Structures are given as structure tokens and as C-alpha cells.
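Technical annex B. To support the medicinal chemistry partners, we prepared a structural model of the target in complex with 4-(N,N-dimethylamino)cinnamoyl-COA, based solely on the information shown next.
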Amino acid sequence: MTDSLILTEIIGRVGIIRLNRPKVLNALNQELMHTLVSALQDFDKNPEIGCIVLTGSERAFAAGADVKEMADASPFEMIQMGYIEQWDALAAITKPIIAAVSGWCLGGGCELALACDMIVASESAKFGQPEITLGIMTGAGASQRLARTVGKAVTMEMVLNNRHLSAEEALGYGLVNRLTPVDTFFEEALALAKEIAARAPLALHSQKKAVTLAFDTTLPEGLAAERRLFFLLFSTLDQKEGMQAFLEKRPPSWRGA
Ligand code: DAK
């Protein structure tokens, strides 16, 4: 399917979404966010898809929310844009999402990458939160997700003084999983996504949920939720199949049931 704001494709069990506003470095306007979230929800509902890759261009993953769209907005208009609802819907996607990032990854773009489960970055990737330069602050999760990922000191420098992280620094701080040459970042992300997509679907679903809870709950609540999810998987055919396949020294054949 082709859309003006995003391009989608399915390769094997991987759903791919490419942000497609190249003239404005994939600035995230409301329409793009709305289209992106519906594409993610469609992939999430599709049992033929096990993992999602979200990417932009070589020059920019996304240079942030669309400044032109926000420049003259009142607080009420900002609320009406439904931006918050889109971000909440994005966080509710149950399948693993890998961000394949090259070039600019700023503001809302960086928050979008942070809302994904893993990041594969090209050597040209630059991560930053420049909201302060516009007289505003982060609004889609960076103050929380970035701080939990790279720590307080680096986050403070990024949000208070527009410090950009190079891809190498981002790798060192644990913001990204893998660093690749510019011409292979997408292939690397796709290869990782194909491996993940081939794994037991219900176990993937529960495992993502459990790790996500680590950021949303206290340790005892998170541990209790992990145990519930763990025991629940013993009601699945895939648990029986996975363990039987191990004992019979053969590859498992997952049913997603
Ligand atoms: N919005 C709109 N247009 C943008 C843009 C953006 N964020 N970023 C780039 N563009 C446009 C430029 O205006 C330019 O358009 P033309 O002049 O050609 O018409 C085109 O993309 C190419 O950009 P440049 O000519 O500037 O390219 P350079 O290589 O020289 O510079 C740059 C690249 C990324 C350093 C620069 O474009 C830049 O500084 N861009 C702005 C980055 C930025 O400030 N991003 C943060 C935006 S604020 C919310 C939650 C979150 C947010 C909002 C609401 N709620 C909960 C309601 C998030 C806010 C943000 O992200």
C-alpha cells in the first residue's frame, strides 16, 4: 500500500513503515501521526506479521513535530490536534517495533524512536531534543523515556541545552542496539526484525508486555505481572511445541496459539 505520508510494505512476517515527508525531513504533522498510528494498528492486528520496522530516510528519521503546524496554535488547539491520543495509541502497540534511524532524529522524532522497542542506527544518526530552542519543552515522553534510558545527566544536557548525541554516543549510552554503516542500516534492522518475527507470537506478545511494565510499575507489581504472564504461556500450544521440539532436537513450528 502506498500513502503520501507513509509508505508501507510487508516482507515475510515483517511490516515496514517508512515516514515519507522528505521535503521537511519527515516532520511529524497530525495527519502523518494519524496515518502512522493506523498503519501500526493494522499491522498489530494482522496475525501474519510478527515484528514491525519503522524508518525514515537516510537524511532524517524525523526532525520533530511540524513546527509550521504548531507555531500559531493556542493550548486548546494543541489539545484538539489529538497529538497526545496518537502517542498513547502508539505506546499501546503490542508487537515489537524496531526503529531504523539514520540522520536527524530530533524532538518528536527522537521521542518516536524512544517509543519503539529497539533502535538500529546508522553512523550518521543524530539524536536530540531541541524543543528548548523553540521556547517549549519535550511533550511526547522524552523527559521520562530518555531519562530512564540514558540517565539524568545526559538527558538534562540534551533537553536543557540542545546537546545532540552522535550514533556512537547513543550506542555507548544504551539508547541504540546496533550501529551500522549508513548504507546498511535498514537491512540490518530488517534482518533483526525477521529473526524476531519468526519467534513464538504469544511469547513475544507477553515478553514485550512484561518488559514494558518495568517502566510503568513498581518492582513488586512488575514481578507479579511477569509471573502471571509466564504461567499463562503454559496454556499455549506453542509452549508444548517449543519444549517438545527442544527434546526432539528439531526446530519448532509455531502456531501462535
Ligand atoms: N518542522 C517543520 N519543518 C521542518 C522541521 C520541523 N520540525 N525540520 C525541518 N523542517 C523543514 C525546514 O523548514 C526546511 O524546509 P524549507 O525551508 O526547505 O521549506 C526543510 O525541512 C529542510 O530543513 P533545513 O533546510 O533546515 O535542513 P538543514 O539540513 O539545514 O537542517 C535540521 C536540518 C534538522 C537541523 C533543521 O531543519 C532543524 O533544526 N529542524 C527543526 C528541528 C526541531 O526544532 N525539532 C523539534 C520540533 S518541536 C506534543 C508532543 C511533542 C511535540 C509536540 C507536541 N504534544 C504532546 C502536543 C514535539 C515537539 C517537537 O518535536
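Notes passed to the chemistry partners:
The two ends are 28 Å apart (CA to CA).
The longest helix spans residues 30-45.
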